[in-house]
Amino acid sequence: MKRQRSIISNCIPVFVILGILVIWQMICITGLVPGYMLPSPIEVIQAFIADFPALMRHSRVTLLEAALGLVCGVTLGFLCAALMDSFEPVRKGLYPILVLTQTVPPVAIAPLLILWFSYGIAPKVVLVVLVSFFPIAVGLLEGFQSVDPDMIRLMRSMKANRWQIFWHVKFPNALGEFFSGLKIAVSYSVVGAVIAEWLGGLEGLGVYMTRVKKAYAYDRMFAVIFLVSAISLLLMAIVKVAQYQAMPWTHCQKEI
Amino acid sequence: MILQAEHITKAYGENQVLQNVSVTLQEGELVCLLGVSGVGKTTLFNILSGLTLPDSGKVLLEGNDITGKTGYLSYMQQKDLLLPHKTVLDNVALPLVLNGVRKREARERAAEYFSQFGLAGTEQQYPVQLSGGMRQRAALLRTYMCGDKVALLDEPFSALDTLTRTGMQEWYLKVMEEIKLSTLFITHDIDEAILLSDRIYIMSGNPAGISAELVVEEPKPRSGEFLLSDTFMEYKRRIKRNFTLR
Predict the structure, then answer these.
(1) Domain count within chain B
(2) Closest chain A C-alpha to B109 CA, distance in angstroms
(3) Is some CB atom of chain B closer than 8 A to the CB atom of A199?
(4) Which residues contact B81 (CB under 8 A, 6 or more apart)?
(5) What is the pLDDT along chain A (256 residues), one digit of tens a residue?
């Protein structure tokens, strides 16, 4: 009974999405919105299949940019958080600057980056770093600083040095926040790469989007949008699995 | 004399917490600091363990001055403070790992004590999977694994419910017979103090000082029966008199 109910409740989002797609299809069939303004879901799927090789070629470029940027962003975020946690003056000086970098919209920075780093993948990677390091840095810092002070006292009474306190207590304590930040960072990284490509580039899903837009091929445009969403969702799912694997103590069986 | 604290005085700003507190601990002895909550017992332990500096006074371990130096006494705080992300075995082996023992060897050495401490079978579990009593046992074993000559236990059983606590006290007496660890422990429970201790210091006043010292001569091992005997009641009466006199 209970199990059945949980299966049904898990299916709710699927039903909602299917419902929206059906309504969308009906709107297009009945001609409520003209076809050149809004392609029907079936047309989008057809466009996706027809464009599949091109989409895959461009995805590869976008994913490479996102992955490179993400690796650098996570590393940078980690270093920032560790420095800010270790040295109070660094935290006071660096934190406002970090927040400031996030108040500038990526669309405003991207053209500058293209000007400085030309049309290759470099400006895209830099933009991805800029958007992805922040959630990591903030999440980790929060995790480092939320350690029970009594825990630190215990470690000190056992003669642990700073590095040992970091490795045995602070870092594991921040893992939950790290993964929450990483989920945000991966979705930002794909969107960031697409935005940077959109504003100037030779290859990638963002570049492809501008091309199909100029050709008024909105069915293909929608196919790219769905692909970008799907990639983000897939990456977030991977992070979720990684978190599950890395933190076994959060889901172990209680036997009291 | 293994541990000696001489004329410890400590104030936090205007608030004088400890006034001229002196305590001693003989080798193999179980000595208790008894006092109401908030009297400054934990402050004294923080000073003994070196985490806090006293305003004046000295802490001597086997005659050597260890005032303000951490890492010489094993200190178990009120909370069990087990690391949630480490298995029970890794938690217990942590003091050895911090001391530079290789992980595998540390685990092997820690695992030897699991059955003696009633923890057999929990090695690979995480602390959230343990009951309160078991967590406290694990924290005690970790304190013991620190390998120092003196252990400081801050209300080790206060977080447990009454029935579990009685069981833990009897178990603890048995283990102490076997490992003979010189221990100074804090409690605000008079029964617990009489049952476990060789000697009791009564802490009271504001600022706090040692107002009385009492030797419990009942031979060990003591059993639950002792709690119901006339001798026990006599000790209890003597301690209570001390508190009402204030």
Answers:
(1) 2
(2) 17
(3) no
(4) A148, A150, A151, A154, B139
(5) 566 777 888 888 889 999 999 999 999 888 888 877 888 999 999 999 999 999 999 999 999 999 999 999 999 999 999 999 999 899 999 999 988 888 888 888 888 898 899 888 899 999 999 999 999 999 999 999 999 999 999 999 888 999 999 999 999 999 999 999 999 999 999 999 999 998 888 899 999 999 998 988 888 999 999 999 999 999 999 999 999 999 998 887 765 4
Task: Give the domain CATH number at B13.
Answer: 3.40.50.300
Structural domain of B29:
1-73+150-246
- Closest residue, chain B, to A175 (C-alpha): B85
* Cβ pairs bridging A and B (under 8 Å): 65
Cβ–Cβ < 8 Å for B97, B111: no
Q: Do B216 and B167 share a domain, yes or no?
A: yes
Q: Does A246 touch chain B (CB under 8 A)?
A: no
Q: Are residues B139 and B102 in the same domain?
A: yes
Same domain, B65 and B183: yes
- Identify the domain boundary among B147, B168, B200: B147
Boundary-marking domain end, from B125, B147, B169: B147
Every domain of chain A with CATH number 1.10.3720.10 lies at 39-250
Q: Helices A122-145 and A88-103: crossing angle, nearest 10°?
A: 130
Name the residue facing B83 among A159, A164, A169 (closest C-beta): A169
Give the ipTM of the model, two decimals please.
Answer: 0.84
First-to-final CA distance of chain B: 30
DSSP B208: B
DSSP string, chain A: -HHHHHHHHHHHHHHHHHHHHHHHHHHHHHTSS-TTTS--HHHHHHHHHHTHHHHHHHHHHHHHHHHHHHHHHHHHHHHHHHHHHH-HHHHHHHHHHHHHHHHS-HHHHHHHHHHHHTTSSHHHHHHHHHHHHHHHHHHHHHHHHTS-HHHHHHHHHTT--HHHHIIIIIHHHHHHHHHHHHHHHHHHHHHHHHHHHHTS-SSSHHHHHHHHHHTT-HHHHHHHHHHHHHHHHHHHHHHHHHHHHH-GGGSPPP--
Q: Does B126 touch chain A (CB under 8 A)?
A: yes
B169 lies in the same domain as B55: yes
Task: Answer yes or no: do B77 and A150 touch at CB < 8 A.
Answer: yes
On whether the A39-250 domain is CATH 1.10.3720.10, my answer is yes
